[in-house]
């Protein structure tokens, strides 16, 4: 059997975030309800400044007859900073069904999962958003959030003023939402109902005295050991929700802040199943810490694979020939 090869451009044409969203949401619920094999992430640094490589496996979901293994490299000084491929295998035989570029899939599934957690935990009337980190993920998080709720105002802060200005120019034109480029982190956080942070930070920079009551924070930076955005004190004073308890401690926001599994209130999949586990009142601070899980790659890759076959997109190669 031949293997389907899909480039980044082909994946981009096949993957519609709005089509994928309900599949991602259902998969989170399924993962928290019954997972026989937990998602795993094998991480290693590389001999370059801040560069690393990670393998996410096995991407499993009970209704999909396939699994994924993703090779995922991070080079913060490069563009794009995240590169890799997703290998899609037949679940029963191990046959390599497809190899596809992972850059856009990773961005979209992370954008959707972050927006999902944000939307479920933020106050119903929350409309002002602070984006901390004006990179690709910051743009995708804001765009994904507008699929789910009305956003009236955006504050953006990045250590690079030029990135902040570029973000504001691009996203204002696309979303038609007023965007303020902030000179400081405090300015961005001051009046935000929702804070979304996607940075490479290794030390916490969002503290209890930075944010107002009732705020929701989504922290996406900590996805490997040694990264942290939100302080331990703030997490302890908040209702903290993650995508996977064990990984949140091993390499996510909880471990990065030096805390333990006892500081985790619930997984986002559990809140999808039972909304009573979510925000208790409008004064409460909520935090969603997402590491990123292998089943998200499977859901997206299977979606792309099916559409590619329907539309006759991509080329085939016989690795066993």
From TrEMBL:
InterPro entries: NAD(P)-bd_dom_sf (IPR036291), ODC_Mu_crystall (IPR003462), ODC_N (IPR023401)
Cross-referenced Pfam families: OCD_Mu_crystall
Cellular component per GO, a single term: cytoplasm
Coiled coil start-end: none
Superkingdom of the source species: Bacteria
PANTHER family: KETIMINE REDUCTASE MU-CRYSTALLIN
Entry protein name: Ornithine cyclodeaminase family protein
């Amino acid at each position: 059997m031949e293997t389907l090869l899909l480039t980044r451009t082909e994946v981009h044409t096949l993957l519609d975030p709005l089509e994928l969203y309900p599949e991602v949401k259902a998969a989170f619920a399924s993962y928290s309800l019954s997972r026989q094999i937990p998602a795993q992430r094998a991480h290693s640094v590389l001999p370059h400044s801040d560069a690393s490589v990670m393998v996410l496996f096995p991407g499993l979901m009970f209704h999909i007859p396939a699994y994924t293994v993703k090779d995922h490299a991070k080079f913060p000084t490069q563009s794009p900073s995240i590169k890799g491929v997703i290998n899609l295998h037949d679940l029963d035989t191990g046959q390599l069904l497809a190899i596809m570029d992972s850059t856009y899939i990773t961005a979209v599934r992370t954008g959707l999962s972050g927006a999902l957690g944000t939307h479920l935990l933020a106050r119903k009337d929350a409309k002002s958003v602070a984006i901390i980190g004006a990179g690709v993920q910051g743009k995708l998080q804001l765009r994904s959030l507008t699929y789910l709720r009305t956003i009236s105002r955006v504050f953006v802060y990045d250590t690079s003023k030029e990135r902040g200005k570029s973000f504001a120019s691009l996203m204002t034109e696309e979303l038609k939402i007023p965007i303020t480029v902030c000179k400081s982190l405090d300015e961005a956080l001051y009046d935000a109902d929702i804070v979304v942070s996607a940075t490479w930070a290794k030390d916490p920079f969002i503290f209890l005295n930075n944010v107002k009551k009732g705020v929701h924070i989504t922290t996406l930076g900590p996805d490997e050991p040694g990264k942290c955005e939100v302080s331990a004190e703030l997490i302890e004073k908040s209702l903290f929700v993650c995508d996977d308890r064990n990984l949140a401690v091993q390499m996510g926001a909880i471990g990065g802040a030096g805390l333990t599994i006892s500081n985790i209130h619930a997984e986002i999949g559990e809140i999808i199943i039972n909304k009573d586990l979510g925000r208790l009142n409008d004064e409460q601070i909520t935090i969603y810490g997402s590491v990123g899980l292998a089943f998200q790659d499977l859901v997206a890759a299977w979606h792309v694979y099916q559409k590619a076959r329907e539309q006759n997109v991509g080329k085939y190669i016989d690795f066993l020939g």
